[in-house]
Amino acid sequence: VINGGAELGNTSGWINELGSLAVRTTNPLPFSGSFYFFGGANSQTRARQDIVVPANLITETDAGLLTANVRWHQNSFQGQDDAEMEIEFYDGLPGSIIGTKTAAGLTSPTVWTQRTLSVVVPPLTRTIRIFYHADRDFGTNLDGYIDDITLDLTGSTTVGWISLWQNVQITDECTTSCYRKIAVASEPLTVTVGSDSSEQHITIVSTFGEVDLANPINAFNNGTNGSSSTSVVAPTVTTTQGSTMLYVLGGTGGFGEPGDLEPNHWNFPAAVTERAESVVSMDGLQSTADFSSNGYALTFINSAQLDTASKQSGSASLQLTGASNDRVFVPGSTDWDLGTGDFTLEAHVNIDSHANFASILGRGAAANDSRWNFAVDTNGNLEWHATQALRLGSSIDLATMGWTHVAVSRNSGVTRLFAGGVLLSSTGTVMNITSTTSELLIGK
Questions:
Q1: Domain count for the chain
Q2: How far apart are the first and last CA of the chain?
Q3: Domain ranges, residue 369
Q4: Beta-sheet strand order (sheet of 244-249)
Q5: pTM to 2 decimals?
Q6: Could you tell me which SUPFAM superfamilies the record lists for this protein (predicted)?
Q7: CA-to-CA dists, residue 396 to 83, 118, 382, angstroms
Q8: pLDDT digits over 247-257, tens only?
């Protein structure tokens, strides 16, 4: 939830449907922080926020295994005026409503009271909409106070996500072994390897701490053996660093892709396959590494460095101080030519402070239609620039949000800007981001 505790000092992230959501600082004091929400000088106030279901939870959602938990603290002025939270589920952005639930009635509390609204997410849900709703009983202000609104999605097995990288040989993309990303969810995934004598390398990266595999042999050697009479070879742990583990499924394994009808199968707790042009890890393995099939070389410029003190996952993050035009340089490639097709750019960012325009990921010269820039403006607001103009903006201050997943994505002609899984803005205008030989820059 963006600005769930009103700590931006305003109602950014919320859209009014009735009345006008407002913030206050005292009488009573907030439950936490410096601000909280109330209904303003209105007889009724209703405001909403949309949260997109993360892609890695779609499988669990459609199986009916995901639960949405809205949590908040509630108070009132002398027991007057009622407030509540509501939740709705949609099959699009948003599409058709497929479910709704309102918090049970509560006599207006006179002290901050924690409340929770939990409901199973209906299958096919793609957008979750939460509401602040309050009605005035007395006076001129609508004194239904709510603070610290959060939404968490819990499943039957895991919270968070795991990335699994499979070392495969894909003849139409590379002539030597390369990496393919398999995004891990909660459903069983069968990874099938070929029948030659090469080793099969599997790397697992967990974003919610170390992968808990006390017995990796049993964890992986639980599949069928296909049509082969050769026994499945148990994987061996060859490298462990931070939350990253490298497993070798050796001997009778080989190069292959998920779905190949070859002998020897290993089951992993996961299900979705995707190909990425470049996925950069800042975990300190080989200083930093591009885990895509392309293996681009990365060069640290000026004071850009790995920092182990703060990270969203793994063992390190990229630190850019802003004092000396810090950045990471990636050589030019046609992979960065976005054209008019579909693409996704994403990262986890943690902005301590900001004074100037700062690029998260960008390419090209300013006065050129090949330029694109995924960036933060001087106020910390997330932006998307393309073909010499600002195309998508927002009103959130990332410097107040800690580690946050941000993304810009174009799909079927619609470009969307996200932060923390929440859709911030979108446009149906298709920009032709022309080709160039310019390098790719991370930060600047």
A1: 3
A2: 28
A3: 291-442
A4: 236-241, 244-249, 200-206, 162-168, 178-184, 272-273
A5: 0.42
A6: Concanavalin A-like lectins/glucanases (SSF49899)
A7: 25, 27, 7
A8: 323 222 222 23
